[in-house]
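Good morning,

Attaching, inline, the backbone tokens for the sequence recovery test we're adding to the shared suite. The designed sequence is right after.
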């Protein structure tokens, strides 16, 4: 249900399980991980995560599979690790990742969106994180990403209040960066603009925005950026008043 497609300077990660409104079964997380590997190997300037299902971005985890976890204790761990591995891999890609959200985005679909660097929502987008309606919790790392995006108060309101919000409200609280008439068109515009950036800068900036990890020297990352192969080309292009031609 997940596949990677190259499209000129940028790539597309397409979610395609329309009959289930892109609900993700257990094996779907493995497909997401594989598509992410394909994207990393292709090394596009930017990646757009988009849906092939009309009216749905991602309905969340497949309820048919979730229902089996009440009795399948070992399956709970397998599900958690599969979902975490796939979403963490998407978040760790070294180039910009843009979520184009048109239609419903619920539960694990929000977790998928939060792994992207930028999210834009079309006017028909709807968002909710309602695990409490099912009597379950939400992965800690995804709660952390949600709180980092919207703040602890709004994260609590989404998780505990279980409300469905529209694109305008999602933009107001910071869940998405922009609310636009058509998400995919805006995502493509952003990806085209990002195609002019330096790959080495994107990789370093993403690590710094994410807060890197314990023991990582962000000053060293900043200093090292001046030694990148992209820096001389960036300076030359600026002086020559032309677009830089960075190595891809």
């Amino acid at each position: 249900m997940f596949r990677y497609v190259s499209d000129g300077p940028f790539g597309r990660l397409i979610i395609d399980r329309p009959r289930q409104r892109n609900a993700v079964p257990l094996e779907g997380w493995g497909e997401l991980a594989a598509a992410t590997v394909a994207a990393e190997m292709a090394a596009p300037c930017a990646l757009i995560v988009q849906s092939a299902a009309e009216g749905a971005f991602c309905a969340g985890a497949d309820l048919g599979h979730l229902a089996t976890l009440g009795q399948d204790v070992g399956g709970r761990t397998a599900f958690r690790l599969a979902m975490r591995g796939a979403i963490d891999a998407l978040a760790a890609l070294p180039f910009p990742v843009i979520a184009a959200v048109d239609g419903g985005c619920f539960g694990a679909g929000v977790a998928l969106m939060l792994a992207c660097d930028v999210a834009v929502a079309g006017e028909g987008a709807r968002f909710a994180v309602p695990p409490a309606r099912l009597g379950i919790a939400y992965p800690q790392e995804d709660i952390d990403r949600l709180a980092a995006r919207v703040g602890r108060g709004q994260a609590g309101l989404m998780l505990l209040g279980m409300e469905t919000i529209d694109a305008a409200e999602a933009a107001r609280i910071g869940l998405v960066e922009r609310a636009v008439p058509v998400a995919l068109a805006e995502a493509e515009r952003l990806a085209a603009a990002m195609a002019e950036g330096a790959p080495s800068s994107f990789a370093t900036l993403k690590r710094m925005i994410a807060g890197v990890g314990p023991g990582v020297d962000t000053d060293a990352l900043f200093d090292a950026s001046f030694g990148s192969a992209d820096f001389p080309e960036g300076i030359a292009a600026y002086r020559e008043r032309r677009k830089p031609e960075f190595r891809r």
